[in-house]
Amino acid sequence: DMWMGWIRWRLRPAPTLRPEMLVRPLEMPWRSAHEIGAGVAWLATALYFLAIGVLGAVPIDLALPLHALCMFMTVRRLLQGAAILRIRSSLGGRGIEVVSVEQMQPYCTDPAQIFLGFGFEWQPVHAQRLYELAKVDYREFIVPRWLRRLLGQSGTPQPDAEIGLPYIHGVESREVPLYRPLQNFEGGTLLVGTTQSGKGVALAHLITQAVRRGDVVVIIDPKNSRRLKRIVERACADYREPDTFMTFHPAFPETGVRLDFTFNWQKPTELASRIQSIMPADTAGAFTAFAWDAVHVVVQGLVELEERPNLIKLTKYIEGGIEPVLEESLRRYFGHRIGAGWRELPEMRKLLHDAQRGNLKRPSEAASADLMAFVSYYEHHVPQNQRSKVLDAQVRTFRHNREHYQKITANLLPVLSMLTSGDLGRTLSPDPFDADDARPIVNFEKVERGGHVLYMCLDSLPDPSVASAIGALALADLAARAGMRYNQGIYRRIALFVDEASNVINLPLIEILNKGAEGGLFATCAMQTLADLAKRLGSEDAARMALGNLNNLIALRTKDRPTQDFVVETFGKTAIHSVRLALSSGSDTHLGDFSASNSTQLTESFEELVPADVLGKLPNLQYFASVAGGRILKGRFPIIDPDRGCSTATAEVPRSASPERTP
Fold first, then answer.
1. pTM exceeding 0.90
2. What is the Cα–Cα distance from 182 to 180, expressed in whole angstroms?
3. Least CB-packed of 103, 334, 399, 563 within 10 Å?
């Protein structure tokens, strides 16, 4: 049995060698191209054999095969050297390009594809090259400009004055236009980058393509970027009907539109939740809950009176008191329940008489004598089964201690006051019967049905509190509109772009990121650091939870370490090879005794696919992106100049930017 087992073991089939079991060959392009010298030597040898064969020094039958062999080695070595030089030729990087709108049109012809600039797909070989470059001075391996042209490298290298290290984009010698299917971006996109790293340029590319596709576009820009606004205007002029572009600016209300954030709703509770979303959060939640109830009572009362609620009316009846709404509601209720002669009832006449004489205690100065009589009659003479829940809520608010009521709504009134003061109040609570105001009144339903492009500038630099409140209210209204679209089966695509998302993010925006795609609302958010979002939401865990709803990530230069860690976690890891050389020598006491050893060890370890510190060294407008569930791209965005013509000499598109799609 022992011998038979040994025989079976010796005769076992050889294991199958699978491709994933093969070790990736180690590449070292960051060195001198020694193959060029060898190729020159082989060329000289080939010429020597050809010469001696022609002169008759050796038989021609022997000289020609030797000449052919040397020429073969010449071509092989020169090609190997050229490959090394070609990889090194891109170490100078790519300078920032400024292109016209006409030059970008050939790259954005397919509405089912998103153009993401120029670059390449980031592979493990690029990570290996990047790790090797960290060990050397890349300047020693940059080739002259004339050699770049000879090797087919077009475009201008990155000038030394520009921010960032050029070799990050230079680990690949060939770049192509980057495209991804539109459906890959339905899960939301996050743009992260520090100040002046290129978020505005990236947004300009994405917005221009959304305008060209025919999407309904809503842009929330807290800081009012003039360049981005001009690009959006140019895109609307090129690809849309006249009067498609609309603007909103709190500092210049006379030049834009009037926005009604309380127009679209299906239930009165939606307006209360919308106002609650812009309030500062309290620890216990009691103040927020009471504020929600206060708004809900007023909204229900206005709806019963067939009045459309707006911010000015809500502020008036919450700050000044519910008395006018309650009095009119009771008049309607008595007229409907009792009839036209309800004031002549004996009980009502007695209560009116007592109220006129001051025998009924008034909870506030705003309560009229008639109102006191109406409330007393409702409380004491109307049967419980005939009462209205809406009136019960109003009476409860009316009877509430006025001083305590003002204290417990202290978080709500400042927010409403900010949104209803001066010209801003007339802009956010438009009066359709005001003949002196010719500005158009729009809401998100009208923006959607008209296929408009709405550019909202929030003016956050001089007034961050108002800007944050307006942005949060707009997002709450958009979330409600997305829910209505989902219920009604409307799926026209709406593209939402939120710059500086940490200034305006709230629960409705998180709901949009989580469920908005089902209602045809697709969001792209831009921010600077994870800490900004954590401060707004209260904790880093809450910030990561919000960002977890965004499927795609485009990371420009980031300096914040927690943000870098979040980005590289998304990119994952890869196997990196390391070569270790060991050389030792020694001698014994005996004459002639000598020992030496030389060893080379190739090891493999799992490291970050993109090192975290590299994110802080990216040049402007360059990025790493994770799209389509793990596909990593390294790219760069050119600057779109809407006022630049194609006739300019500097506006030539480089040969490397030919309209070729990535595989």
1. no
2. 6
3. 399
